[in-house]
Protein 1
Amino acid sequence: MTPPDAAEGLRRGDRVERLEIGDAWLVEPWSGREGRACVRVESGRVVGVEWLDGSGPRGGDGERERVEPSHARGILVLPGLFDLHAHFREPGGEEAETIASGLDAAGRGGFTRVCLMPNTEPPVDSDAGVARARAAAEASGSPVAAYVLGTSTRGREGRALSPMGELTEAGAVGFSDDGSPIPDPALLRSALAYAAGLGRVVIEHPEERRLTSGAEAHEGVPSIILGLRGSPAAAESGAVAAALAVLAEVVRDAPPGATPRLHLTHLSTAASVELVRRAKAERLPVTCDVTPHHLALHDGWLGGDRRFAWEAAQRPWAGEPAAALPYDPATRVNPPLRSPADALALAAGLVDGTVDAIATDHAPHREIDKSVEFGDAANGISGIETAVGLLLHAVDAAILDLMTVVRALTTGPRRVLGQAVAPRQLGGDAHRATATRDGPFTAGALADLVVIDRMERWTVTRESLASRGKNTPLLGRQLPGRVLLTVAGGRLAYADPQFLAADGTT
């Protein structure tokens, strides 16, 4: 592989004038094709993709011939990843993250597009709030595209709808009160109907708070042993069922051409996934996402069990010495880490298409808000830079296949947001118009890709994370797949320093 513009000292934000990636494992989810290929980029655009040895078979109806997983033994090239759910804290929480530092972290994690959640201080519930977020992204100098979500209700208070029309005109791609469910079914009904007329999706945080008040962890054996107040799975699945019932009514009464769309974010239980599976069978316009930490971790991590969910599912904990100290506040997240069985059900939902996307729910916090007793710690995991590594662990364990993961990080988020992120509606820099029906590897498309060394493992440390939030239970852990290069819309978003300084072909 020839590093891009090594002799010219390419810097973040610069156009990638020349890049040659030879004999890498390329994954192209738009066509369902993967295999050995060579990719060439000139003047920020893809000028050629050559598939080698007839690799990367196409299949009908989503079925693919089994491909030898040689991606585990070399360079991996993926489309730029799309994070549907990230918290960059600006305005109001800049000590934990700014839009600039968050976009840096996104590039380092392989993401070229990020949706900014609106639960900032103040929340993004006005056109001025949308404009402020977009201006901060532009001023950052990062080529990573930042899409802004507006709130569903004013102030995220769940009492009255936000000015959705004004938010849409300002550039909001959807609506969410994330962190707070819409408590009134009538208000949720109005939000779905109003957003439908604007061509936008409502992203709902499913939680029945009457069941989670004071909760510290998932209600299960670990919480009982640790003496933590439990949050039952029914608090989520019950809210999912209620939201789906409201959606069904809105769909029934919707005028032609204004289809309401509901997206359920960070689902964490088997029951929730099954409810969505049934709703999709009934053709309800619902989508959902899951997080890397709910796929790979489990509630045993609160007690110091550091096995991945698929390992713990095979052999339940039987009182062996823990690998880490219990009550690590970095493991506190909402929704809480669930049982290994729940984690496997989320993976099964991805494989069968019930789950549409993987979203990081990147939630950085100040150390002062995490380095406290477990029950007092802020909820959230800083995860935009560790997402790829966790998911590659799942691929290596044969829990997920690589194409499923890549689809959930690329085409899935686009499908959730729909026309809100269609090229003709994006405006701004031309790099945001790279997503076409033919995919980002089409000749002439602006380069939007991530290059990963599959053989390399890297250790998660405070120093290795670009995010200001270091709150992850993965500190000290080795993850597979080192991101070497991220190109967003033909411009450099991130390059590993050693890779960028190299010369010649590697």
Protein 2
Amino acid sequence: MIKLTKITDVIKSAFIPFGIYYMANQIVLIFMLSVTGELENYAQMQSQLSITIMKMTAMLMAGATVYPYYKLECLKREKIKTEFKKIKNMDLTAIAFAGMFISLVLNYVFAISGLLESSQRYQQVAQIQFSVDLVPALIFYAVISPVVEEVIFRGIVYQSLERNFSSILAIIGSALLFGAFHGNIVQMLYGTFMGSIMAWIYRRYGKIITPVLFHAAANATMYLWSYFF
């Protein structure tokens, strides 16, 4: 039987920080859009460089608000003295290639299944994402987004769930939340599958750089593939 104290701790240490991040992201973005007078035209201008920079800024600032929660989870994990696999250069290379390969395979599976075309919401999101200029897009999707999202979903949510319940529940729970966060069926399925892999990588190595690298490689591969092909 799950103890109420554990549920309460997860709410405080995982879901409240997640809520803080989401609200801070939206508030900062809306504030910048209002100041620049672009709030009313936001839906039509999301591919513009200025909007991309605002999104980056909002994500970084929102991430900074919950970074202390991540550090606190790391301190709590150190007390448990969990042993992790030592990271070698070969491991980092394998993680990067795995992110590239799996992202391409999933995209191919979704494409031949007709799922990409069937989701109107995904089509709208994809059109916005892949219409951003190459360099700012790579900075946003392959650097800032992986770092901030991994700190939240693996560094905070996963660690909190694992500390209170089990590794399996932590992998599944953090992956489901990561998938749902993306807001459409295609990215939800993609995010849940990839999120489970990134949580497993984090559990294996215990360093946030490992899921960040996987995440960054996957995002960069998908963006470059869609941009050039």
